[in-house]
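Q: Fold this one first, please.
A: Sequence and structure below.
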Amino acid sequence: MKYLLSGLSLGILAGLGLPSTALAKQPTVNGIGNIQNTKEIRGAGCSLQRRGNKGYVFWSVLEKSALMNIGGKDRVLKLVSATPSAPRVEKKGSRSTEIYKSGRMTVRIDRVTTRVCRKGDQECEVTGYDGKMTLKIGDRQQTIAVEGDCGS
């Protein structure tokens, strides 16, 4: 019975065009997938991955625009709002929200700072984050857990 119910829920979620939690670790054709053109991911910037996965789902340089794979295609989204606005001093536990848009697609990222550089540490160049990313297209929505960092 347990397998029947989980198979049924997978079928329902697949019918909505959104992955279930069991499918969330895999790239998806209808929602958030891993960025295909990884040559674009280089240098200083911010990157996010599905929690526990190695593929990048988000890449941003200077947080003015971002690269994501949505619906099986790499797409550029523009930053439309950020709270709190930069620049700011990062502390462990700090919270931030960013909203990116492209056409009918809206992506909201809610982050919590998990790792910061110690003051005066010349070796450290990265701030770490955990959070969630929500993709909305029309009345459809997908939320995934993410982790990543910003820096060089």
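Q: Good. Now the second chain.
A: Here it is, same layout.
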Amino acid sequence: MGDQSDHTRLDLDVIKEMGTGLSNVKKAFDGIDKLSDKYEDDFGNSDLADKFGDFADNWEISREKLTGEIDALAQIAKAAAKAYEDIDHQLAEAIRGAQDPKKKVK
């Protein structure tokens, strides 16, 4: 039975790490400067500059959508890990209470 407990602990750690990692990805995306602001003066051709501006605008919209989805997944992973830990704690308390009938279970 110890193997199952270790496996469960590992899974909780993976879920927590996933939440933290996704939050870090979101922060990195939030910190990216607008592409058009950074490079617009580097193009000699106005048509090329316009095309790059279109690309940068589309990237900005897509990045905002992706960032929102990443943030939602990070929050879900963190909430799931907390819920599993709470359930594990409640089950442990119930088992301890069942083993010691004098102890009150919450």
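Q: Anything worth noting on the second one?
A: Helices lie at 2-30, 35-39, 46-99.
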